Amino acid sequence: MFGYVVHRLLVMIPTLLAISLIVFIIIQLPPGDYLSTYMAELQAQGEAVDPQKIAFLREAYGLDRPAWQQYLFWLWGLLHGDMGYSFAYNLPVSQVVGDRLSLTFIVSFSCILFTWVVAFPIGIYSATHQYSWADYGLTFLGFVGLATPNFLLALVLLYCANTWFGVSIGGLMDDNYIGRPWSFGKVGSVLAHLWLPVIVIGLSGTAGMIRRLRANLLDELQKQYVVTARAKGLSPFKTLVKYPLRMALNPFIADIGTLLPHVVSGSAIVSVVLSLPTTGPMLLDALRSQDMYLAGSFLMFLALLTVLGVFLSDLALAVLDPRIRLGAGSLK
Amino acid sequence: MRPLGMRRLASVLALTALLLGSGEARALTYIETPSLAEDVAAGKLPPVDKRVPTDPAVESGRPGQPGGELHVLISSARDTRLLAIIGYARLMAYTPAYDLVPDILESVDQHDQRIYTLHLRPGHRWSDGEPFTSEDFRYWWEDVANNSKLSPTGPPVALLREGEKPKVEILDPLTVRYSWSAPMPTFLSLLASPTPITIYRPAHYLKQFHAKYADKDKLDALVQAAHVRNWAQLHNRVDNPVRNDNPDLPTLDPWVLKTAPPSERFVFERNPYYYRVDREGRQLPYIDRIDAAVADSKIIPAKVGAGEADLQSRYLRFDNYTFLKASEARNSYRVRLWKTGYGSQLALYPNLNVNDPAWRNLLRDVRFRRALSLAIDRHEINNVIYYGLALEGQNTMLPDSPLYSAADRKAWAEYDPGQARRLLDEIGLTKKNSEGIRLMPDGRPLQIVVEMAGAAAEEGDVLELIRDNWREVGIKLFAKPLQIEVMHNRIFSGETVMCIDRGLENGLANAEMSPAHLAPTLQSDWQWPRWGQFYETHGMSGEAPDLPVGMDLLKLARQWMDATDFEARQALWRRMLAIHADQVLTIGLVAEVPQPVVVSDRLRNIPEQGVYNFDPGAFFGVYKPDRFWFVPEAPADQPS
User: Fold this and answer.
1) Which of A294, B112, B360, B532 could form a cystine bridge with B523, CB 3.0-4.6 A?
2) What pTM was computed for the model?
3) A60/B483 Cβ within 8 A
4) What are the pLDDT digits (tens) for B566-600?
């Protein structure tokens, strides 16, 4: 087991290096660089740009060097914990990203929580009451959530929240709390704004979760051990929770790998529509304006989370489900 | 003669106002700003008569009341520069009638438009209370603009006359002289630009970042802490008055940035040392604080409709008008429609420098450009997309410009498909394919791909209408949306045949403003990108103009620089405009598409009918936002 963990950890290093290379290539693929974007933006607003000044900036930012040098420069920085420099913000990337992460985590964890709280009871109920009216009804609702484009739902709810409850449009708090220290008023304001994105983002995941739980549970419910447990007189609820539900939880744990990056990048489009101060819109913006170190560092961070998440979910699965053997391959 | 007379009159009036103003100012007893009274009482700030210059600029309009917080919306942290634009504190400034008057400067003496002597106001201070003197001008010229580390390309090109630097003399603490050996008529208007060449810097603050003045160890520590490579990069970062992203940089603007980026909300507070007062002795600006919240540009119209901005125009477009109007009453604001200053809201740019030789020949044929223009039904575009509110015609001056000519606007702009067909036949484009599309000389069907960069629906809609128009004369149009950077690169490299974009930036020019946009001097004029590049790089890259029209325009622009009297300049402007109209170098569509401006019901002093323009105008700048004020919230003012 210990050897396996060490092996998995070591494999992560070349994986991440390969990812960093791919990330860098992809960011560099569109023609031009940040400064050409910057020029285009200024010109679109009718401002003049001095080409000499742009050439000077290109040199100052190191954009005139060949791509492989830029890559190595960036990689070297990453290894030292320096995520590079954001051109658009004129600040080190670490300073730009800093305060958005906490809000992203708040939103994303609330969404995961929402999804679980909604999906669990519904999934269990529709599995145990298969083909009932309630099963159909709840499943239908879940599918509506899945089928409605998130951004559309966001816009509709935004409008309703504003006209009915007077909640300001977009954002995670009233403007006058932005940049102020935390206070009861600020927490209240965040809570008043949080429910909307949570519903919008959370609802899309709910349907999938319901269906998976329902399907897994249905598989298990038919099995011999359940019948045996029932026959021995165990109460239906206890039977359900103790055996089949535990088995049905497998996919949830396997999901951790994808869940962690979702916490950071998830729901970028909704965040853009709702102008949430999370990392999603910033990543999108960085990609569009070719702010390459900012975008690259974001993507690397996501990659790291995915790799770590898969690792964690593997470990957790092994602990929770004895049927899965980590070293299975080597035993054969 | 008449325009000259008017101009003289205007400057005499301005001078009189200034003299009267200063006379009045001496008699003025200043009134302390309520929001600063506490700091003054506590000794943190000197009283108001010690803060304003001994000879402040006096606002002659109706006095308002100080106080209040103005909410606006911006789309990213970079937009903090908008406040530097609309704050519009400039050495020289345009009035709403586009007369150029001294603003931060007390006065200017000029000789032959060659020698400019700038006089500062005694007692004028930076926002941190340090004196603003000629040392700040010297520091910029000697230690910034001419320092090879800070400005490797030397002083800004706009300050050079045919490559020659000005001579800068510091005459005394309040007097600076700039002189060239040839006339430099654009100098004062450069100082009044929305993104001006700030020829002064807060030397007392910046010296701590300059290797020549700072203690080496201290500077090294600063460089380390800021994660930059050397002191020059650090200096350039902290010193960016146009970008306005450093809360520590002292400024002369009405409001001072208080929030360090990155943030989702930027607060600007009043500059306690601002140089303008109203005629009753209250220091401007009236509004205490500006609160700029960041929101995605696409959501800004919705937020404005929900009443989250007191004053907003940026990111609002004409097609938001009905939506904004619908929630006017609920959120106590009014939507005003201001005029815009573009020569044409949208114009087609035939690329005279296109690579494809067949296209190049065709686009360079003036008959072809005229035919394309004649085949467009501008009236239909106006009615279908702009509710008939726009002005149809070519991409030229607007009626409010003293250089306006109705003939120029109408030239080749009437819808006349018959004549368009005749012109196309005359060129020899007579063969048609089975679809009825004309064939180019080399046998390809005449299909024009018009590239557009706007994500906005507007350009696509307009092109859709033109497509039907052109189809009738046997030309096929394809619209191709592109990322803006991709489109620019394609144009620069000569791939693009035609593109659609905003028309002339300044449709309100007068003869004193530079006609550079009318001649091939800029790469970003899409009808001749290579010629412009050639001019901009002094012949290092691009192509020299090889059509008489390009050479003529360039010659006229040079003559304009050399001309010293107003009539000559005006005549040159008119000649250049006439050439543009006759040669149809760009195909204008409609102009004066109104710009929605949302104004809170409590906000005063914002003109009902304004012009929304970047240069000149600085959006709200010419209307002096420092004199906008809030009616205090009283029960009577609440809408019932």
Assistant:
1) B532
2) 0.81
3) no
4) 899 999 999 999 999 999 999 999 999 999 999 99
